[in-house]
Amino acid sequence: MLTHDEIATLADYLAQTLQTGPVRIENFSRIPGGASRETYRFDAVAADFDGGSRGFILRRDPPDSLIDTERALEFAAYRSFYGRGVPVPEAIALVADESVLGRPFFIMERIDHGASSSPFQPDPFGPHREAIGRDFFSILGAIAAVDPYDTEMPGVVDTPAPEDCWRRELDRWQKVIETDSLEPQPIAMAAIRRLRRNPPQPPPKLAVVHGDYRVGNFLHDGAGRITAILDWEMAHIGDPMEDLAWALDPLWASNPALAAGLLDFEEAIRHWQQASGRRFNAEAFQWWSLFANLKGLAIWISSSKAYHDGKNADPILAFSGWYCATRHNKIIADRLSQTTWGGL
Q1: Does the pLDDT at position 318 exceed 90?
Q2: pLDDT of 56 over the 90 cut
Q3: I need a surface site. Which of 64, 214, 227, 308 has the fewest CB within 10 A?
Q4: pTM
Q5: Which domains does the chain possess?
Q6: Angle, vertex CA 153, rays to CA 151 and CA 159, nearest 5
Q7: How much is the pLDDT for 130?
Q8: What are the two backbone dihedrals, phi and then psi, of residue 151, each rounded to the nearest 5 degrees?
Q9: What is the DSSP string of 226-280?
Q10: Burial per residue of 77-111, b for 16 or more beta-carbon CB atoms within 10 angstroms, e otherwise
Q11: pLDDT value at position 66?
């Protein structure tokens, strides 16, 4: 939690950045959860604001996080999609200077009157499930439709050749597993061997990949409409099949019979194709689907190490390192026992 002095410093910083008169911070509180940054909500009160106040979100780097990400990347992602048919909050300021709040942070507008839902709830959207599902896959398609060279992303992330997308991502998450594992990971290593032996077809063209697009990482209005896509900290340029496979990982589905627990698979893919202007590649999707399972396992392994080493005492890391890791190990083992590619 920020100290009283830090909150006062934040008020002065906002007044300077937004070029207003004096700013007063009210209703400052931490939002639970968040794997990679501390997240706070607050009201900034100033005479220059319409209605006298504006709502903001502050995302500050923690001492240690579940996922090692770069704040400039997340900030650039919000700026890239704001006002382009993808519901995201407006990015306000990015601050790397640790003298302001002790650690780097950024500020974005707050989306009020929006609810978040956990994929671990039995029926998170009730009668609005199908409407949310149509929005969910259409927005994911809209992200894939944007030319990455027409965004700010190439300035903060590398741009791989299409044929190298899979290798870059697999190398990254294999390294996480090998570095952070507290015990042998035979299931993960078997999956890595399977993936390396059977690389996917490259995408016809690159896309911005959200990196963590799933149930639980958006806000909705409670009436069937998604109001904000959040948590862009793993965004990069790559194969849009990666995002689709992650969104459809079984861990995020409250009802495993439905895509993301929301729609029939065929309907979900139809909405994605219509919005993206791309063709669904079933063979490439199979590769990226197993990769998504492995990536999830890598994240849970990393969270377990952070908690074990005492770098972060947030119980969500302990839960992820136990329950989520066990689930993904089971999902991967079942897939490896039932599926063969290339005769392997």
Answers
A1: no
A2: yes
A3: 308
A4: 0.90
A5: 4-109 (3.30.200.20), 115-338 (3.90.1200.10)
A6: 115
A7: 98
A8: -130, 180
A9: EEEE---TT-EEE-HHHHHHHHT-GGG-SSTTSBTTTB-HHHHHHHHHHHH----
A10: bbbbbeeeebbbbebbbbbeeeeebeebbbbbbbb
A11: 45
